[in-house]
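Notes from the pairing session

We agreed to fold both candidates in a single pass and log them together. This is the raw record for the first candidate, unedited. Please don't reformat it; downstream parsing expects exactly this layout.

Candidate A
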Amino acid sequence: MTSIDFSGLRSALADVVAIPVTPFAADGSIDITAHRRLLRRLLDGGVRTLTPNGNTGEFYALTPDERDAVTELTIDEAAGRATVVVGVGHDVPTAVAAAEHARDAGAHMLMVHQPVHPYVSQDGWADYHRAIAEAVPGLGIVPYVRNPLLSGESLAALGEACPNVVGVKYAVPDAACFAAFARDAGLDRFVWVAGLAELYAPAYFAGGATGFTSGLVNVAPSVSLGMLDALRAGDYPAAMKTWEQIRTFEELRAARQSADNVTVVKEALASLGLCRRDVRAPSRVLPEDRRGGIAELIAGWSA
């Protein structure tokens, strides 16, 4: 591969990596107007890294054409104000096609979803990511690691083969496992992004992370960016004050194997009048008797 300077992309990952929701209209289609409004709200709130087609964006519930549309819309709305890290996944040809589309649309990086397959070998995991990385050598690649059995050595080998693998979204809920994995893979070789958002960010920053993903940022950008500022300053007491503020909200999202992960975010946005609460199966909207509790939780959060 041609030598490319990825330093700017690395800096973009050492930040709040926002995972925008995908709002739906009453007829079930993507609500383009609401989507643009929500993206502008993030950008105006100071967010500078966006991941369209992430899990909070209901990646697996979107059709290929819808995923392409979300990619294009996000890049258009970002208009140079943010680095765009497009989520890709599924089988290798589908992921490569999405990667090439993202490149042609003007994306900067790809976040590669954990391969969805009942049988994943370590070498096969590396082959999967290498096929995508080699198809778009000019884009930064960020593997999404959710498998606690994956070894740091496997990631190190992938990074050796593919210089454009610049960061890692690490989402195994074990801070000690993360710290060991990062050091086995190369603490300085990759930018480490805490992939379990604000609830795990302080512990993962202590282990070497310099950025974190966020779905909550859709609701209150200033809250997420405030935690980042505290963590960058090494002010863990201040970061934990934010942690205490958002704890119940994030625990509701994580409960029952994250059954209501997107649902809770969209309910919060609906309570603010920013989009409909609709989600696609296999997610489901909250029962009516639980909706008021979400509005109460976010009352007083500044945008």
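Candidate B (folded immediately after A)
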Amino acid sequence: MALSGDEGVVTGVAGGVDAVREAAGVRRFWGRLGLPGLIDVHTHFMPEPVLRKVWAYFDAVGPLTGMEWPITYRHEEEERVALLREFGVRHFTSMLYPHKAGMSAWLNGWAVDFAARTPECLHTATLFPEDGVAAYVRQAVESGARVFKSHLQVGAYDANDPLLDPVWGLLAEAGIPVVMHCGSGPAPGKHTGPEPVGRLLARHPRLRLVVAHMGMPEYADFLALAERYGEVRLDTTMAFTDFSERLAPFPEGELGRLADLGDRILLGTDFPNIPYGYVHQLEALERLGLGDDWLRAVCHGNSERLFGL
């Protein structure tokens, strides 16, 4: 895959997906809805050595996945940013996360630079329950972080760890959203599931928590938390796609609740670490049959309001 001429148009084939045709399909989707583009709250950019290790994990059919997981958009950073621009993604994130103590401050420093050189990126930061976490989270907030990523499964930590309590309070007061992988998909972790998240929200009800992957596979439980707490949202990352429906199908009986919570569902995709083309996530949302107004809110309006864009 390459950039074509001065226009920065992406050409070639990405993981078996024709990039030009893919971009045309994505733009047709949001153009038909009358949107100026998309806002994707769950895209991954991180230091290249870390991203390569993530890809190697997927390639090796790691224990958290246990399945073939081809990376569709396995390209250099510049090309991946260009693809999102060609798709018409007006704002996106650089979801990054540590798997052990001692990584977060370094990752956050990288994220500052990435956001500075990538105007469309919502400056993203991360955290881990460790000594000094309150200080570096405050530093990230003061440096302009717009969203945080918390990965309870990979980090194998409890969101209710006492070291994190001042952090959640700070982020709740600042109104900064936290995208949290807290569902038990694709494999349960020691601290995943709705119960620990419910305890966290009972103590910090104003925390702007965005449940990644719709809380897969505990969809109904996380929808219930959103009904109970007005600042809880869910992102669509990989949910409803053919890939995920084979593993953890969304309950048809919950579509009514999904429609009713249409003002708190946000588009997320997991780009570039997805085993299918970007447009398939959009097609999966459309085939739910919840209507164009719902799609417009999910794919743009809800995130626009949340981040004050």
